[in-house]
Amino acid sequence: MKKTIAILLVLVIGMVGVFADTAKIDITTSVTPINGIIVTVIDEAITPLISTSTYADFSALATSAFDIATDTPVTVERPTSLNAYSDIGYLHYYSNQAAAFSTTVTAAPLASAAGIITSTIDYRVKVGTDVYNTTAGSMGTVVSLRTGTETTSTIGTKTISVSLDPDDFDSAMVANDYEGIITFTFTAV
């Protein structure tokens, strides 16, 4: 009887191995590549993005993005020196791609026209620690936002500051309002 039970147990254990199988399911997903920059003015309601911020935090800033057609230009006063910068805005950025990306900063001198005389005031634009000088002409300053070695999404904010040339300010030939545009051109590498 013991032999019969032992043989039956061996057969049952052996049969379980024959009928056992592994079931699998394959799943995939696709993540849409996102690269972007948003420029906002400095406002107490706008919090700079930090490494723990999310894409939702970045995209929520779109409603606060500076609109050159409808928003009031940022006013900058005469500085005490060329290196006395005034913070005027934020450059917010996000990328979920592995490649490096940057923005190139360019700007035209502040200009004012009165009759046939056009007067300009040169200035410097600082984004984070990178500086563009309007005396450089069309050559922009590249501001690196992602090096390409990161292993997660890149998110952050750099402060935008300007410093007017005090000599140009003092020698401006037109006593009037001056206006200039700072341009940020996004480049994915």
CATH architecture: Sandwich
CATH class: Mainly Beta
The backbone outline, from C-alpha atoms, is elongated
Count of strand segments:
10
Largest sheet: 5 strands, antiparallel
Beta-strand share of residues: 35-45%
Q: In the residues, how many domains can be counted?
A: 1
Helix content: 10-25%
Average pLDDT for all residues:
87
- Uncertain residue ranges: none
- State the assembly state of the protein chains: single chain
Which strands sit side by side, in order, in the main sheet?
A: 1-2-9-6-7
Output the number of helix runs: 3
Class from helix and strand fractions: alpha+beta
Helix and strand element order: HEHEEEEEEEEHE
Structural description of this entry:
It is a single chain. This protein has 189 residues and is of the alpha+beta class. The chain has a single domain, classed as Sandwich (Immunoglobulin-like), CATH 2.60.40. Helix content is 16%, strand content 35%. It is built from 3 helices and 10 strands, in the order H-E-H-E-E-E-E-E-E-E-E-H-E. The protein has helices at 2-19, 55-60, 166-171; strands at residues 35-41, 86-95, 101-107, 110-114, 117-121, 123-127, 130-133, 141-146, 154-164, 182-188. The strands form 3 sheets. A 5-stranded antiparallel beta sheet has the order 1-2-9-6-7. A hairpin with a 2-residue loop joins strand 4 and strand 5 (117-121). The longest helix has 18 residues, at 2-19. The radius of gyration is 30 Å and the shape is elongated.
